[in-house]
Design goal:
mainly beta; Neuraminidase; 4-stranded antiparallel sheet; 11 strands
Length: about 120
């Protein structure tokens, strides 16, 4: 679960294979099921963070990637070309770096995500 800059609460629901975003009023703003990313396997969101641009970054463990959405749930891109095997932990620091825990190897990958 993560809260973005506009006050939305973003939750990854691995049981329902969806991301749910709820606004300040408690109403569901949107749901994201991974379809726009056109990945080979079913979407399986595990961890979620939001950045200073209110973008939503979701670790998709089935597809070994990170899916990035804008604050309105529109798919922006998939980060899948940096050896993410079982992304199962996710954190973003103030310097624009993503810290990704990898279930398969026990490693932590650091990805420079935002330019300062």
């Amino acid at each position: 679960m993560s809260e973005n800059n506009n006050g939305d609460v973003c939750v990854s629901d691995g049981n329902a294979n969806t991301v749910v975003v709820v606004g300040k009023t408690g109403r569901v703003r949107f749901r994201y099921d991974g379809t726009p990313a056109r990945t080979k396997k079913s979407f399986d969101p595990r961890y979620i963070v939001t950045d200073v641009l209110s973008q939503i970054i979701v670790a998709d463990i089935n597809n070994n990637c990170l899916q990035i959405l804008d604050q309105n749930g529109q798919f922006l891109r998939c980060v899948d070309n940096c050896g993410l095997e079982g992304p199962n932990g996710l954190s973003l620091n103030s310097e624009g770096r993503l810290w990704v825990g990898l279930l398969c190897t026990g490693e932590i990958k650091v990805i420079q995500y935002l330019k300062q």
